[in-house]
Design brief:
The complex is a heterodimer. Chain A is of the alpha+beta class. Chain A contains 17 helices and 9 strands. Chain A has a 4-stranded antiparallel β-sheet. By secondary structure, chain B is of the alpha/beta class. Classes of the chains: A alpha+beta, B alpha/beta. Chains A and B meet through strand 6, strand 7, strand 8 and helix 14 of A and strand 3 and helix 4 of B.
Chain lengths: 400, 176
């Protein structure tokens, strides 16, 4: 005969122990090779310690031994999901040092290419986030569309991942004939599909349960930790370098119509076209970060269309790539651009030679990741992948 | 905000702690004495007209020539620079601060130069200072967790120093 009648008697004797759980570096939801050490008490995580550096190649040291154009392929390998945007950041920083202004046609070409890169990158971000939360199909759909962008990029520069296309002075080649029509056709096809993605994830009740109200980050924390991109805007901070950046960068978007994707008084810009923010979502949670990314895809489609229009009307050249061993003027510059994952900054010190004295890369994901331990305090183990995934990190850029 | 007035304003407030400025460079910078960096940073963050609440990056530059011929002709003495890039979300303006350090503390090779940490002023600086410690060998006093971040914990040397030599071997992996 059992001596226990009341289940509470059993629980009376149970004690919980703290445990260290190692997650990664080969864990699928760590987006590459990130190792997280979780201090847990039962299902509750009390502390998360990220360990990085598994992909560290000291790209900054390599940059001190190569001329700016030789370094372009290395920038591809930083954020390898948005190689075009990395090329652009580095090219603009060198151009700022050289006080070079790309011609109008090159400017619009860069807008088209970098916004297409943003769409491709956000599609992976969306698909992979679905994977993190245990749904496989959005990933397949996202990759289906991304493939088509990669096809377009392949036609432009011959590469599908490490493009080295945008370079100091302009681009390595002009857009091939007939490319703009193909791009336009792709956008027309993509636009209605985004609505399907919203049905698959954004408004999916399981998805909302897993993300809404999880990993809430206040605007003050987001600024204090130096986060940027959708992570910062997801916390309601109205800041986008395409509008607020330095002149050399904002000049690229001169005359383009766009609104910064950020919540104002409970609404996103032009949000009548999109699903409503669910009741459970709190500004700064995983759901908002994801939603900002999804809206940015729509915004980028719009920007590419404007770019195509302007590019086809612009006359003249797309720019002249600088000579491989051209000497740089003396001085130092720092320039940040709005890459898909946030503000990618390059700091270049030149002593007047062809090779920079110092080439520093400020990574956006690096700062975005540093907030993990703050967001994961006292959350459930199952929420850790949801939070880390919502930051949409790329380890190649963090470890450089 | 204009740089010359800001330099005057800071000089009035901190006197000799503002050791210089370069306003001709593309991005003008202000030089701060190492012992005053925290006070200056706190002022820049908390003064409402400046409000530098966002720290973009903390990094360093090593100035030393490994080539003796170049060293003889050099315009500068060997030193380290710690560079802070700041931004204000409210006013959308930016600023560059620099601190000059000697390459080694008391010029004894191997003794890491020291500077106060600003990790409690901006949390961004936490990881950025760890990176500086890792790659440049700068000791940030008062940092909450000054460990290597990109290199393995048992790595020897600081790779972004100009006189760093790649190890021949690391745990059985051939270096050069």
């Amino acid at each position: 005969m059992s001596t226990v009648d009341d289940p509470r008697t059993i629980e009376f004797d149970v004690r919980t122990d703290e445990m260290l759980v190692n997650m990664g570096p080969q864990h699928p939801s760590t987006h590459g090779v990130l190792r997280l050490v979780l201090r847990t008490d039962g299902e509750i995580v009390s502390e998360v310690t990220p360990h990085l550096g598994y992909l560290h190649r000291c790209a900054e040291k390599i940059g001190e031994n190569l001329t700016p154009r030789q370094f372009i392929p290395y920038t591809d390998r930083m954020d390898y999901l948005a190689g075009m945007n990395m090329n652009l950041g580095w090219a603009l920083a060198i151009e700022k040092l050289m006080k070079y202004e790309p011609p109008e046609k090159g400017r619009h070409l860069r807008v088209i290419i970098s916004e297409m890169g943003r769409i491709a990158s956000h599609l992976v971000g969306m698909g992979a986030y679905g994977l993190d939360l245990g749904t496989f199909s959005p990933f397949l759909y996202a990759f289906r569309e991304r493939e088509r962008i990669l096809d377009l990029f392949e036609e432009v520069c011959g590469a599908r991942l490490t493009y080295s296309y945008i370079t100091v002075g302009g681009a390595t080649a002009d857009l091939p004939p007939g490319w703009l029509e193909k791009c336009e056709a792709f956008l027309t096809q993509l636009e209605p599909i985004i609505v399907e993605y919203h049905t698959l994830l954004t408004t999916n009740s399981i998805f909302i349960k897993r993300t809404a109200g999880i990993g809430v980050m206040s605007a003050a924390t987001a600024i204090d930790y130096g986060t940027s991109g959708p992570v910062l805007r997801g916390s309601g901070v109205d800041h986008d370098l395409r509008r607020d950046g330095e002149e050399i960068y904002t000049a690229m978007y001169d005359g383009y119509a766009f609104e910064v994707i950020v919540e104002k008084n409970g609404h996103y810009p032009k949000d009548h076209q999109y699903p409503a923010v669910p009741m459970e979502a709190i500004l700064g949670d995983c759901w908002h970060r994801f939603y900002v990314r999804m809206l940015e895809v729509m915004q980028s489609i719009d920007l590419v269309r404007q770019g195509i229009d302007r590019y086809s009307r612009a006359s003249g050249n797309y720019g002249e790539p600088m000579k491989l061993n051209q000497k740089l003027p003396k001085g130092e510059v720092y320039l940040e651009t709005e890459a898909p994952r946030g503000q990618m900054g390059f700091y270049i010190v030149s002593n007047g030679e062809a090779i920079p004295w110092r080439a520093r890369a400020r990574s956006s994901s690096f700062c975005n990741l540093s907030v993990t331990s703050e967001l994961c305090r006292d959350c459930l183990i199952a929420d850790v992948p949801a939070i880390v995934g919502s930051l949409d990190i790329v380890m190649g850029e963090i470890d450089r | 905000m204009s740089e010359p007035t800001l330099v005057d304003q800071l000089k009035q407030k901190f006197g000799a702690a503002i050791t210089g400025a370069n306003l001709e460079n593309v991005d003008p910078w202000i030089e701060v004495a190492p012992e005053s960096i925290v006070a200056v940073c706190k002022y820049l963050r908390d003064e409402p007209s400046l409000a530098f609440d966002y720290c973009n990056s903390v990094t360093a530059v090593d100035y030393v020539h490994t080539d003796e011929k170049k060293a003889a002709k050099s315009e500068w003495q060997p030193h380290l620079e710690v560079v802070y890039h700041l931004f204000s979300m409210q006013h959308k303006h930016s600023l560059v601060l620099k601190v000059m350090l000697s390459r080694w503390k008391n010029d004894e090779a191997g003794e890491l130069p020291e500077i106060d940490s600003v990790a409690h002023v901006w949390r961004t600086a936490d990881w950025h200072e760890r990176e500086c410690y890792d790659l440049f060998g700068i000791h940030f006093i008062g940092h909450p967790n000054l460990r290597r971040i990109l290199c393995p914990e048992d790595w020897v040397g600081h790779p972004l120093r100009k006189d760093y030599e790649m190890p021949l071997e690391y745990h059985g992996i051939r270096g050069r």
